[in-house]
Sequence to fold (222 residues):
Amino acid sequence: NAGVTQTPKFQVLKTGQSMTLQCAQDMNHEYMSWYRQDPGMGLRLIHYSVGAGITDQGEVPNGYNVSRSTTEDFPLRLLSAAPSQTSVYFCASRSGDARQYFGPGTRLTVL
Amino acid sequence: AQSVAQPEDQVNVAEGNPLTVKCTYSVSGNPYLFWYVQYPNRGLQFLLKYITGDNLVKGSYGFEAEFNKSQTSFHLKKPSALVSDSALYFCAVTSFNKFYFGSGTKLNVKP
Fold:
C-alpha cells in the first residue's frame, strides 16, 4: 500500500515553461487536493476534486489547471510557469472520516 | 471568509514539561478541526481531529486538543514533551469541502 505518491520530487523550470506534477493514490479515496506550501503561509489549497470528472478551485487557483479522469490520479498542470510559482507542492487524498493523507511533496523552482 | 490563525511562529519548551500550541479559527457552520505535524522534508501527518462530541480529543503520540466553541479555539496540548516532538505543527479546518490551514508553529523541545 503506497498511499499517496508524487513525481517528480524536484523540478527546475524556466519562466514560461509548462509541466505537469503527477499525483496518484491507491486508497480509493474520492476526494483529492493540491496545496502549495510557502514559508510563513502554511498550506494553501489550489484545486480539489470530489470524484472522477469533478474539480473545483481552491484559494489560489490562478496559473494552475487540473483534471480528474480516474479515481487514482490527479495531475496538476502549470501552463506557463512564473517565479511566483516557486514553492513546495503537496497532493493529498481524504478518507471517509475527513482525515487527509499527504504525498511527500514536489519542490519546484522557477527561474 | 474562512481562516485559521496560529499566533505563535515558534514555541520553545523543555523536555518533560507540558506544551501548548495555539489555534483559533473563523469559519461558517460547524467546522471539522484538525492538527497535522510536518517533519523536515516530509509531507504532513495527521495527529487528531474534532468533528463532534467530547471537547477534549486524543490523538497520536500522546497529543490531545481542546475544542472551545465560545472562544473558537482548538489548542494542541501534550502533558510531557519529548525532544522527538520537535517539528512544524499545523492547525486546519474544513468547510464546504475546502481545507484551510494555519501558518504553522515550529515546536522546539530542548533536552
